[in-house]
Amino acid sequence: MGQESCSQEDCFDLLNQFEHVLESDPLIDEVGFIHPSLFTILDKEAGSSSEEASTSFWNQDHKLGISTDILIQLCKVAKHAFLTALKEYKRHENASSEFLTENISSGVSCPTLESKVMKHSQALLLLSSDFGTAWNARKLILSKQNQPYGFTEELRLSRLVLSNFSKSEPTWSHRRWIIKMISQSFSTPQEIITKESELVESIGERSKMNYRAWYHRCWLVSYMTIEQVLQELNKCKRWAGLHVADSSCFHYRRRLMLRVLEPLKVKGSNDNDKTEAHKIWMEELDWNKELVIRYLGREALWLHRRFLSLTWLMYFCGNQSSETGECIVMNEEIGIFVDNEIYLLQSSMTFPDNKFEDFQAQALHASVYMLWLTKNIPELWRMLEEKLGTEKLKCVLNTVDQERPSLLLHQIDIFAAKHNNDC
């Protein structure tokens, strides 16, 4: 059957076939759209007979393929069937609320109508995941039933939808709603949170820069225990080290690390908590430095270092002014930290060949990072001049001026005024 229109009977027959496949194999864990020419190849690989095979659906080993030739017709008929079922369900609900159930001509029970809405909406969402009305209808019925099994099955369905539409915001939003409902009506099983985190990581492997998935993972942190947070930090470290250009992963690490700091904000917090948090920060700073040196010109690494530096100065350097939002006052511990950062700047500014963009980007990000640091530590200007010298400091400013001139408006005024006074 091609893309040309089919009869209403044929279209409904397609929908019935599709829904039958879904019902007959409840363990389907992946769905996708495939060209009809691939059906024969897939059948040969699976060792099945091509004579008995369907030309519309391919289902083997809990994988479901839908022919691209029938997508338009199937989506239209699924939408029609869903909206019809939803209309009938709402009419039944309205009549029931007015004690007029006996006047309903169809005589169909509410559970039957709910089943029809759920069945047709499932088919529709697997074809068009952004159809918000279908998700909302499922929310309505699930919240009314309020059964753990229903929510568990809904997690399975939305995961199946994500196998084909990994960046579908309505689908991710629906998963968050399910978890909220589970946590409100029942206890939130920590294994669900763990599996959700693993799901995002697996999707991140297939779908690069998937901000919606990583936002979902960040949202999960609020449901994690401190033990889970520490486990997540260790588990995602290797992934982050292999995907240094993916800022979403480092944003997730920052969310986890902020969660570690939450107990420290409570009065009477345990000193052991602060010691453990300090250890985590120092290890993260050292690891970040290794990545910065190994992978040149990766802005995500330098942005992560900004976060690590600022939070370390605020919580672990014993500087009260940082907690009030004022400029940080230099002390011995901060002096050692700044010396190390200046050394990192010097090594980043030294490159063998200007023609390589990675070396240029490394110098730029290091310079911008150091200028950003001066906003929080004013005395850093003096230390930079002492360590680098005037010419080298001008080189740092020129590097930034070529790419990010707006960042220098304030710093250049200070730098120029200081040297005019010296002259």
UniProtKB/TrEMBL annotation:
Any Pfam family hit: PPTA
Molecular functions (GO terms): prenyltransferase activity
Keywords carried by this UniProt record: Prenyltransferase, Repeat, Transferase
Source superkingdom: Eukaryota
PANTHER family found in the cross-reference section: PROTEIN FARNESYLTRANSFERASE ALPHA SUBUNIT/RAB GERANYLGERANYL TRANSFERASE ALPHA SUBUNIT (PTHR11129), PROTEIN PRENYLYLTRANSFERASE SUPERFAMILY PROTEIN (PTHR11129:SF10)
Family: Belongs to the protein prenyltransferase subunit alpha family.
Name of the protein: Uncharacterized protein
